[in-house]
Design a protein that fits this description.
With 165 residues, this protein is α/β, with parallel strands linked by helices. The protein contains seven helices and five strands, in the order βαβααβαβααβα.
Length: 165
């Protein structure tokens, strides 16, 4: 099983995705961590971005082959990024779920004003990706990230994917 957690920079997707992967005892794959591991920090051409998503897909495939659950965390703002993982799920005959994390723009602006360890995205990057974000053409759950609601978000996500604790 793979769960793709997607959304704009500053939405809270990485915080949520990491908590979800812990709850599911799943492999956690983060696009910023993959970028760092490939020495691609600061490289953001379309091809650079797709190379990160291809690397995440390769790691996801390896985890699925090993019978593990995977939570994948990235913006996934283009159809080509999502289609890569749809194809991977089909190839591995593995279920896939998409969870979109959203947040109020004032909260996003506040989050992006603070330094973050992995992400280089600032508010200008947020605006650029927001403008380019393609409508999702796969079934997905939308969760609203607020100040202290991660436990409620986790419950909603687990219900969505059919895991009841």
């Amino acid at each position: 099983m793979s769960i793709v957690v997607l959304g704009l920079p500053g939405s809270g997707k990485s915080y949520f995705a990491e908590k979800l992967s812990d709850r599911l005892c799943a492999v956690y794959l983060n696009s910023d961590q993959i970028r760092d591991s490939l020495g691609a920090r600061g490289k953001y051409t379309a091809e650079d971005k797709m190379s990160i998503y291809r690397a995440m897909a390769e790691n996801t495939g390896q985890a699925l082959d090993a019978g593990k659950r995977v939570v994948v965390d990235g913006t996934f703002y283009l159809h080509t990024m999502i289609n890569l993982f749809m194809k991977l799920a089909k190839t591995h005959a593995a279920p896939i779920w998409f969870i979109r994390i959203e947040a109020d723009e004032s909260m996003i602006k506040s989050r992006l004003a603070k330094p973050r360890i992995l992400s280089e995205a600032d508010y200008n990057v947020y605006l650029k990706i927001k403008e380019q974000f393609e409508d999702l053409q796969v079934p997905y759950l939308t969760l609203q990230s607020e100040k202290d609601n991660v436990n409620r978000m986790l419950t909603q996500a687990l219900d969505y994917i059919g895991i009841h604790e």
